Amino acid sequence: NVAITALACMAFLSEGSVPGRGRYADNVERGAGFILDSASGSGLLGDPTAGSPMYGHGFATLLLAELRGMSTRPDLDEKLRRAVQLIVATQNAEGGWRYQPVRADADISVTITQVMALRSARNAGLAVPAETMDLAIRYIKACQLPDGGFSYMIKRDASAFPRSAGAVAALQYAGLYDAPEVHRGLWY
Known about the structure:
Blueprint: H1 2-15, H2 25-37, H3 53-67, H4 76-89, H5 108-123, H6 130-142, H7 161-173, H8 180-187
Helix pairs in contact: 1-2, 1-3, 3-4, 3-5, 5-6, 5-7, 7-8
């Protein structure tokens, strides 16, 4: 599973292990290799038949962006670039993403993973269209309810703590550190 592998590798990175250095360097290298080997021609990282491949794709793209410049894998840059292009190409008209890599409906949790991946990719030097981030911000803001929390889809469900925490973090990843939506979300 690319999502679990990416998250585990991120934990190893936060411990200080990177490719070629650290207690878990081999684990990071093997995990990154597994994710890179899972890339399809479309740019999707992971199993396209999995129930929700865009979750894994977001986390895997995040990891590859964090590893950019550290890994000696010659295919990392190209597969990362295609992964980012897939995210940009599958954003729906509302500004979000959903389980499958298609421009259909959206939910906040998948959208959060894509925003995290795009921020990391931008930090790693890849081009991320400003319009993509602007639309994602608009979608996340539209999911905020009067109580300050965030719904799963635009105005469809009640607020919940996990997605509200993720939404606040995603707004900050997008550069909105002091926005009213962030403050209302934090109060929630």
